[in-house]
Amino acid sequence: MATSKADEKRTKSIIAIAASLSLIEVSILSLFSFFASVTSIDRNFAIFLIYTISTGALGFLGRQFFSKRREFNASEIFQIIALNYGVVIVLCSALYLSLGVSTSFDGALLESVSGLSTTSLTNVVPESLGKSVLLFRSLTQWLGGIGALIMVFVALPEAGRAEEFDVAFAKSFTSQKVSETLLRLAKLYVLLTLGTCVAFVISGMTIFEGLCHSLTSVSSGGFSTKSMSIAGFGSSTIEWVVAIAMFFTGINVVILWWMWKRKFSRIAKNSEFRIYLLLVVTATILFSFWRRDVESFWAVIRKGFFLSSSLLSTTGFSTISWDFPSGMAVMVLLLLGVGAMAGSSGGGYGSARVLQHYRFARRELTQQLKPSSVRVVKVSGKVIDERALHRLHGFTAIFISLVAAGAFIIALANPNSTPIEVLSFSLTCLATAGPFIATSPVDSGIEFNTVTHIVSSMLMLLGRLSIFPIAYLGIAFLRTLREGPFRRIGYWAGRS
To answer: Partners of 379 in the beta sheet?
Structure first.
């Protein structure tokens, strides 16, 4: 009984921490958006002011329920992250309804989940929104991006899964103290955002446009202030700068840290970085060859590099229509599924996992030819534990199953859609990218109805949280039911 009360107390503490953090986060985002609406005293001004005060007050009030304990195990960290995302999504959905961005809750849910999961999937026209709302949308993606990095650099090591992600947990970047790692991560993330913003402004964007696009570029979000995305600017300079920003967004944060520290020898030894470069270069060449008769040489190279960076970083910015011939469509789906490097804010299956699968398959083929040989799987000179390889196969099965299940349900809800449309839609949601093949309103058979909104929101959230926090939250929920209502039902049944 004492253990049950202690577990119940810990559960309440975790819920209080997650709820309070969520309220404070939404309050800060609303405060910045409120400042953006000061120049025009309108409905948005009042709503952001009310949200800033109410959520901020409730958040700081909830801090008194914080546990004095500063250390949490892996399960508790995952629960806090998952609950934090959930509460922020609900609060943002209510805010979008209040602002009139969406007329239904499922539409507002899609918009808020797309923001927090750093996916550029949206059913609103950016030009119809005020500056304060555009800034708020961008800030939600920036928050989702740093939340993903915190999960990789803090939660996964606590769960004992550091060996799966190569250099993401290099001692040169992380610290034994979680607070120091978080501070270093936040500083780097803010510096990257500011540097990207300056580059965008120099390339021709206004300060506001540069700020919004830097928030959504660094986070691999993809929300734009224009419905035509980057193509709406009509500037080759901006396209080059955005493409370069997306390229660096898909790179492991530790490698960016090593670039800053000029540790190029370590970067050269990193296997995942080499395969990431190989994928970008190869995709750029193939996309350029596909469009060779459409534009000039440098324009073809620019658009090929832009599309490759957008796909692999899962940012989702676009300069051309996503209507590809069959051969290019297959390559787009493959790149979209692979995604960014581990330790970046990008999504997808992960180039690190692809590399591990390749090394594993090579070992199995070698042992088929030489049964007596003893081989290990190495990445960047580090031996991958067999248990990690088993988890890799399990994750792969779950990833494929989620894409297939999502495509099946979306196909049922959209009878006019084609198989390539529902497959690319399901994959782009789980990979947190956004655009899908044949996204043209005229050509696409996918309608943004209630089922599509809910299914895509679930896929985006699972993709952003890499499945593990949801699994831990589900286990904790079942344990609570087993030790709470289920135990009482069993007790009453026994007495009767």
So the answer is: 382
Pairing of β 378-379 and β 382-383: antiparallel
Identify the pLDDT of residue 201. 96
pLDDT for 114: 94
pLDDT at 67: 52
Does 280 fall in a domain?
Answer: no
Expressed in percent and rounded to 5, the helix, strand and coil fractions of the chain are: 70, 0, 25
Q: How many folded domains does the chain comprise?
A: 1
User: Do 78 and 159 form a contact (C-beta atoms < 8 A)?
Assistant: yes
From start to end of 271-386, where are the E strands?
A: 378-379, 382-383
pLDDT recorded at residue 168:
44
In angstroms, the CA 62 to CA 492 distance is 35
Tokens standing for 330? 């297959």
Q: What pLDDT does 158 receive? A: 63
Which tokens hold the place of 62? 């909830």
In a domain, 320, yes or no: no
Tracing tokens 């995302």 back to the chain, one arrives at 85
* Positions of the chain with pLDDT under 70: 1-9, 40-41, 64-74, 156-176, 381, 438-443, 467-496
CB atoms within 10 A of CB 290: 17
Best CA proximity match to 454, nearest among 437, 432, 429, 436: 429
d(CA 281, CA 288): 11
Is 6 inside a domain boundary?
no
Residue 486 has what pLDDT?
Answer: 47
Quickly tell me which residue has 């629960």 as its tokens: 79
Q: Does 343 fall in a domain?
A: no
Question: Residue 173 burial (CB < 10 Å; 0-12/13-18/19+)?
Answer: buried
How high is the pLDDT of residue 311?
A: 93
Q: Which domain CATH number covers 469?
A: 1.10.287
Phi, psi of 55 (to 5 degrees): -70, -35
Helices 74-99, 2-36: inter-axial angle, 10-degree rounding: 40
Structural domain of residue 454, as residue ranges? 351-495
Query: Phi/psi of residue 382, each to 5°?
Result: -110, 135
Residue found under tokens 């894409």: 403
